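Lesson 9: reading folded outputs for more than one chain in a single document. The general rule is that every protein is listed as its sequence immediately followed by its structure tokens, and records are never interleaved. Here is the first one.
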Amino acid sequence: MSKQNIIDIVTSMFNEIVNDSEIELVDVEYVKEGTAWFLRVYIDKSSGVDIDDCRRISQELSVKLDKIDPISHAYTLEVSSPGLERPLKKEKDFQRFRGQLVNIKTYQAINGIKEFQGQLIGVDSGIVKLDINGEEQEIPFDKIAKARLAIEF
């Protein structure tokens, strides 16, 4: 089964588990590191996730995964918070974290630049807007390869 199919299955299972709770799926990764496979599920909620949230989601996902067994080899399931450098995946993430410092990498250069860091203004009509040293930079949402919250020191 392809990585994308596994990610889609896990996403569907996750949505069944949390249905109306405030826990949201941030990202699912299915990766091989060395000889080991990892299925990583990153979750969040407005008040922040705790160990009990991670444990509950992990246990319920594990039961569901064992029932349909979509992965034919050994792997480790990890459920955790996305951390301080939380990825921004959906347009609603770009609205939620307005005013925060973000790092964005694009697939193609925009005005000769592929990596941006600035205060997130928001997203409107598929355009992410950043304040970079007082100047507004517009980045088409579909041109973003990776976006994360940045840590300010």
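And here is the second record, again sequence then tokens.
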Amino acid sequence: MKVAVVGATGLVGSTMLRILEERNFPVTELIPVASERSAGNKVVFKNTEYTVLTVDEALAKKPALALFSAGGSVSLELAPRFAEAGCYVVDNSSAWRMHPDKKLIVPEVNGHVLTKDDLIIANPNCSTIQMVMVLQPLHKHYIIERVVVSTYQSVTGTGQKAVKEMMDERAGGKGFGVYPHPIDLNVLPHIDSFLDNGYTKEEMKMVNETCKIMGDDNIKVTATTVRVPVIGGHSESVNIQMTRDFDENVVREMLSNTSGIIVVDNPAMNAYPMPLDAEGKDEVFVGRIRRDYSQANTLNCWIVADNLRKGAATNAVQIAKYLHNQGWIN
């Protein structure tokens, strides 16, 4: 299978290459793609060095699959070109997520809605992916009415320059101006740009994407997204109001038996999910599962995942694997 990775030199793109290799995805020819200024650079895949190509060079090779992680404007321009050439596109940007004709997919939650004709498939926002992984089994058993989420998001979600900025500040430097304020020893309640309603784009992504992925516009979601000076992954404090009562032990057991979720919930032993433990792993970790005594039928939990992996690259590769398993790409 000819597989193009568009944005192969970025944080998510390089993670895509790593996961394709780790999962032994049936790549017969890798086609790494980046901007013209990065063309000619080298990437390594399965101990083999590949030259980064331009978009036109990549299209000429007629890939069957393209994993995109190159930003929304690039995806809007280039994804249709790949699709018109008969190539399946899994796009990690926000460009196609809320498009009425494009599917927004977390395979464990709604992979079944994909059809052979879905040539452009949207990969959800990183913070949305890990949350809906936990919400879906709860919604199936108890019907969720409302979700209140506050996130604690890694600087890796902003990219390589943000990681360098934080480490430069930690070493006593002034950073590079990626964020409007220092990030080291600080917390920024500001991810993406602010909208007229007072929320940020990141917050509204969580609101809108959750309903689309779960196929239920009746779920009310409100979010506050926060950037914190960590690297390992994103964390979320989630308050979930449901229509039916629940037993906390039953919830723990149900989540433990859900594919892709690991329950870490033993407060007596100081066991709970942390970014340090989630880094480099593909599962979504959940703990601090407890009843909200201020409101009926309401649960609190703490969700952590590596945002570069399950929050981006792993989910994209899982979508590609679904397409392959269906026999639509080979």
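What the second record shows: The longest helix spans residues 126-142.
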